[in-house]
Write a structure and sequence with these properties.
Layout (H helix, E strand, L loop, with lengths): L2 H10 L2 E9 L10 E9 L26 H5 L6 E2 L16 E2 L39 E6 L2 E5 L9 H7 L13 H9 L4 H19 L4 H7 L14 H27 L31 H4 L6 H20 L30
Parallel strand pairs: 3-4
Antiparallel strand pairs: 1-2, 5-6
């Protein structure tokens, strides 16, 4: 069934239909993924849907840059290969951070399946065998029509399920459960990228709020809508990126100072807690035989996950930044701020960090 027939069917049963081909990369997703999105409102509601403006661009100074693979993946450690017959590993430290193993088909080798760190990724597929190649893999050099080979140092490997989920903009707290890796790749690859869904969902929600007279300031702020309900030019752009990088840097400094003070007071990290269960997995703060006054109870109020705790640091950082802006924030330059805006996973022999 073609698109025109689908639209006609919806219109016949009373919907005002709008459709558009969009590329996820334009909405903060680190991959080129073009899809036709169809949105329909009941005609009696009188709503004419407008698709959201692009939020990211490398050529528009008023928008943040397109998100690249390095932004999405650089902080992840090397994943584990699958078990025999591509079954999942048990007790992974990072959920779904394992990759499909096996030969590459002639179909796979007929096209380039690798993109570099400074590019957005190719479309994430719903298949383990056809998962794209990690940026650190060798180049895929063209030999002739529909035939390529790997050329360069190292061994090629497919993206892990967790890496694919990052490229689809799933948060790390989102867990995937499966026995065979191919099922994990299917779940991730068949999904609508989270950031794209958010942008379109916010637009639909805003239209419904307008209809009901409800006002949601959080949604309006995200969509760049002023108090009068008028859409304005996207605020911030490259300057906003610089500001957010500064907030992350200040938040890291706040955390490091806090953690150093805690260590001086005799506190320890959860990974070194004598009461931790042997199968302790990073991020699971409730898996202890009993509460420990020197780590679990005091350091992690309400059993919150690292990202939630880090938000407290960001709130403080924003307050500090507001104070700086009252002086002369304009003198701060991008090169003065180390690039520490992404989280870091820590290996077995290192101390735990909460972000």
């Amino acid at each position: 069934m073609n698109l025109k027939k689908i639209v006609n069917l919806f219109e016949k049963i009373g919907y005002e239909v709008t459709y558009k081909k969009v590329d996820s990369v334009d909405y903060g997703v680190p991959q080129n993924r073009k899809r036709v999105i169809i949105v329909g409102f009941r005609k009696d509601l009188g709503i004419k849907f407008d698709f959201p403006e692009k939020t990211h661009s490398d050529s528009n100074e008023d928008k943040p840059n397109i998100v690249k693979l390095k932004d999405a993946l650089k902080d992840l450690p090397e994943p584990k290969p699958s078990k025999e017959k591509n079954y999942t590993n048990e007790n992974l430290k990072i959920n779904a951070h394992e990759y499909y193993t096996g030969s590459f088909s002639s179909r796979f080798m007929s096209r380039n399946r690798r993109r570099g760190w400074d590019e957005p990724g190719y479309t994430v597929e719903a298949s383990g065998r056809h998962a794209k190649i990690h940026p650190d893999s060798p180049q895929m050099v063209k030999l002739e029509k529909d035939k390529r080979e790997f050329k360069g140092k190292g061994e090629p490997r497919r993206l892990s399920i967790r890496e694919s989920a990052r490229i689809q903009t799933f948060p790390d707290i989102f867990k995937f459960f499966y026995e065979k890796l191919n099922d994990g790749y299917k779940m991730v690859g068949n999904a609508v990228p989270v950031k794209l869904a958010e942008a379109i969902g916010n637009e639909i929600y805003y239209d419904l709020c307008q209809l009901s007279g409800k006002k949601d300031e959080n949604i309006q702020r995200r969509m760049g809508i002023n108090e009068k309900g008028e859409k304005r030019k996207m605020a911030g752009g490259k300057k906003e990126e610089l500001k957010m990088k500064l907030i992350e840097k200040i938040a890291d400094s706040i955390h490091n100072a806090w953690w150093n003070e805690k260590k001086e007071q005799g506190f320890h990290s959860p990974k070194k807690c004598p009461y931790a269960i042997d199968s302790y997995v990073q991020g699971s703060f409730d898996k202890f035989k009993k509460n420990c006054e020197k780590c679990h109870t005091d350091m992690y109020p309400y059993n919150e996950l690292p990202e939630n705790i880090k938000e407290y640091d960001r709130v403080t950082a924003k307050a500090v930044l507001k104070s700086l802006e009252e002086n002369d924030y304009s003198v701060i330059k991008d090169e003065d701020i180390p690039d520490t805006a992404t989280g870091t996973f820590i290996g077995d022999d290192s101390e735990w960090r909460r972000y």
